[in-house]
Design brief:
alpha/beta, eight-stranded parallel barrel, 11 helices, 15% strand, binds 1,3-dihydroxyacetonephosphate, EC 5.3.1.1, Aldolase_TIM
Length: 259
């Protein structure tokens, strides 16, 4: 973790969750009501179909609700898409942009991801910009080059520590049970920190950089203890309130230094 940066524990439900799973959101909303919530921010990104009801369930909870994608335009003839304004209208506070599954399934480019992040900022949402290398890129020792390119192309000039979060998700670690070594995570996060500082100055120094990819209750504490890892973006393990809350609780011993 980075001293003075409030960590973020974020869950991404992807294309999972119906009304039957609302009890999990209720349990998370209740479970994060502990003194730790003053030091650790929590966020859940359910599918768009549950967004409005989820924000209502979290009305009196520190658990924030966000979406998993937005269109780069405010409104118009874009069948099947939702805008950042629509997310804000449902009381969502964050939106994930550029997840590797969007980049893969919908051929999203770095430049489109940047336009989506700008749309999020226009709507006063926090953009969680996902970056990360594929297995082929890793095997070709291109990880840091990919991260440099994605930060340069996908992070808007107007990004601040308040309106933007970076999520490093190695594509090969998502849903596989595989994670980079702690030392690989440390090197990647230190590199991203330096790139963000070079690009955004003090805002880059204070920006949260999350790790995502096969984070579970069993490894979250160890990963978040690594320098420049300011929280986690969790897929599969965020579907169950017990697992999400266990990951949240694993911040407890780490946040002592945070103001
Ligand atoms: O893609 C992810 C979060 O956005 C990570 O997914 P898993 O935690 O299931 O590996």
């Amino acid at each position: 973790m980075t001293p003075d940066i409030r960590p973020l524990i974020a869950g991404n439900w992807k294309m999972n969750g119906t009304r039957a799973e609302l009890d999990q959101i209720k349990a998370m909303a209740e479970g994060v009501k502990t003194p730790l919530s003053e030091k650790v921010e929590t966020l859940l990104c359910p599918p768009a179909t549950l967004l409005y009801v989820a924000t209502a369930l979290c009305d009196d909870s520190p658990l924030l609700i966000g979406a998993q994608d937005c269109h780069q335009k405010v409104s118009g003839a874009h069948t099947g898409d939702i805008s950042a304004q629509m997310i804000a209208d449902c009381f969502g506070t964050h939106v994930i942009v550029g997840h590797s599954e969007r980049r893969g399934d919908h051929a999203e480019t770095d430049h489109l991801v940047r336009a989506k992040a700008e749309a999020a900022h226009e709507a006063d949402l926090v953009a969680i910009i996902c970056i990360g290398e594929t297995l082929a890129e890793r095997d070709a020792y291109q990880t840091l080059d990919v991260l440099k390119r994605q930060i340069f192309n996908s992070v808007p000039e107007g990004a601040t520590a308040e309106n933007t979060v970076i999520a490093y998700e190695p594509v090969w670690a998502i849903g596989t049970g595989l994670t980079p070594t702690n030392s690989d995570i440390e090197v990647a996060h230190a590199f991203m920190r330096a790139e963000l500082v070079a690009r955004l100055g003090g805002e880059g120094a204070a920006m949260r950089i999350l790790y995502g990819g096969s984070v579970k209750p069993g490894n979250a504490g160890e990963i978040m203890a690594i320098e420049n890892v300011d929280g986690v973006l969790v897929g599969g393990a965020s579907l169950k309130a017990d697992d999400f809350l266990a990951i949240y609780a694993s911040c407890e011993p780490l946040v002592a230094e945070i103001a």
